[in-house]
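Hi V.,

Quick status before I head out on leave. The structure for the redesign project is tokenized and pasted below; the design run finished overnight.
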């Protein structure tokens, strides 16, 4: 999600329409770790792109919170520092990846290539 929508809790629909990179449907387990408090939250990723994902989760963290995100699926694990971009209360959070390590980007790119194949 390379298109930060600000710190509001409601995403700007027009902003989402102008995404810099495509998003793909992906169902995978995810864990967020808040390094400051040590809080761990588990949820499910429902959409993913090169710059971020949407995590379905009832208990959300505040927008702008820096976290570590770990997404797990059969084809491996992707892990990156991230920032909560927006929150939909009791529904989930838009998460932007922040400078993922190169080896993690290779994993993500392989998933995206697979999801982009007809």
């Amino acid at each position: 999600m390379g298109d930060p929508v600000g710190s509001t809790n409601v995403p700007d629909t027009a902003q989402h329409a102008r995404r810099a990179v495509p998003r793909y449907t992906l169902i995978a387990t995810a864990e967020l770790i808040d390094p400051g408090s040590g809080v761990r939250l588990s949820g499910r990723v429902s959409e993913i792109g090169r710059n971020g994902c949407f995590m379905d989760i009832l208990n959300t963290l505040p927008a702008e919170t820096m976290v570590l995100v770990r997404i797990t699926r059969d084809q491996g694990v992707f892990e990156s520092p991230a920032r909560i971009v927006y929150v939909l209360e009791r529904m989930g959070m838009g998460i932007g990846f922040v400078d993922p390590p190169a080896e993690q980007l290779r994993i993500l790119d392989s998933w995206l290539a697979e999801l982009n194949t007809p």
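Above is the designed sequence. Residues 1-17 have pLDDT under 50 and may be disordered.

G. will cover questions while I'm gone.

Best,
W.
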